[in-house]
Amino acid sequence: MTHPTIRDVAALAGVAASTVSVVLNEVDGARVSDPTRQRVREAAELLGYTGNDDARHLRRGRRPTGNVVLVNDVIATGPYGAALIEGAQAAAWRAGAQLVVLNTAGIAERESEALRATPTRHAHAVVLASLSYAARTVPQVRGLVLANSRPRRGEPVVPHVIPDEAGVGAVAARELIALGHTRIGVATISRADAAAARLRGFRRELTRAAVPIELVLVRRVSRFEATAEGGHGVTRRLLRERPDLTAIWCFNDRMAMGAYRAAAEAGRGIPDSLSIIGCDDLEPVAESLWPSLTTMALPYFEIGERAVEIALDPEHPVRRGTGQRLLIPATLVRRFSAGPAPVATMSQPLTASEKG
């Protein structure tokens, strides 16, 4: 018999898996509304979900002493990665350890100083966390675990917990394909590991579904323009170049905000005329947009949680693996911005320019 998973609960409750973890672990200070908490608890009870002890690899009877030091760039001060710290706190709390959070503001010298200072903080384990997924150099720190980043090629292999970025693109593509969309615009950013991986997964899924890649129009802005304004500009460009697009997938929810404005200016109703999918499940943006935004919830909570578990457990299976990598899937949060493709365009023939 298959036991229900945290993702089953999330799907039934219509929330991200990280929200389920926060509610069921009773994480202090988590920003989750009372109705959402009730919905999660009811879904867990209905499914008979009791947690996955196998996923918590800390061995019974081992109660580490000292601190877990989480060195991060801007996670503690930004809107995206707070759940990573909440997940790290939940894992440390279960293990009887204290979590010490050191924010470096993305300054390399501060990171080096923070890592050098970990022995004076009686650190049992060190987690080095990044807001944006990317490859990085690996500092020489005993027992180091990377969270939301991976070792750069040629660097020492250390345990690292990362989101399945290619899976993010694949899930978004499957959702749009299931809704009948083939003429899709992609509003993304350039020169970013996460964006490149997501686009690979997106295109791979389209190929599997026999959707002609030439029907998909990709336009990029710089990574510094991954904002509402950037999303507005790139969506205007997409709709100007291809008025027949029926869906747009945005790199993040802030860009999706701008896409909503561009759609309104073009007279395209959401989702009747144009479906939009974002990424991040950013609060309160995703729920506050009208209609509320269908988006991919990145697994920040689980990344923080698993990174601390691995850091505290020298016998963790990830440490014994060749690549020492743990991939965490994202979760599709369905709301009301993505709907069936308009019937008139689902079977519309290719234009001469599209035929090449």
Provide a short characterization of the protein structure.
The chain has 356 residues and is of the alpha/beta class. The chain contains 14 helices and 14 strands. The chain has helices at 6-13, 17-24, 34-47, 82-95, 108-116, 165-178, 193-208, 228-241, 253-265, 285-288, 300-312, 317-320, 343-346, 352-355; strands at 67-72, 98-103, 123-129, 135-136, 144-147, 150-151, 160-163, 184-189, 217-221, 247-250, 275-279, 294-297, 325-328, 331-333.
Tell me what the structure shows.
This protein has 356 residues and is α/β, with parallel strands linked by helices. Helix content is 39%, strand content 17%. It has 14 helices and 14 strands. It has a six-stranded parallel sheet, with helices on both faces. Strands 9-8-10-11-12-14 form a six-stranded mixed sheet, sandwiched between helices. Strand 11 (275-279), helix 10 and strand 12 form a beta-alpha-beta unit. The protein is globular and about 65 Å long. The relative contact order is 0.15.
Alpha-beta classification: alpha/beta
Order of helices and strands: HHHEHEHEEEEEHEHEHEHEHEHHEEHH
The biggest beta sheet is recorded as:
6 strands, parallel
**Roughly what is the average pLDDT, rounded to an integer?**
86
Strand order of the largest sheet: 2-1-3-5-7-13
Helix count, DSSP H or I runs of 4 or more residues: 14
Rg over CA atoms? 21 Å
Shape: globular
Oligomer: single chain
| End-to-end distance | 52 Å
Strands, count? 14
Helix content: 25-40%
Uncertain runs: 52-64, 345-356
Strand content: 15-25%
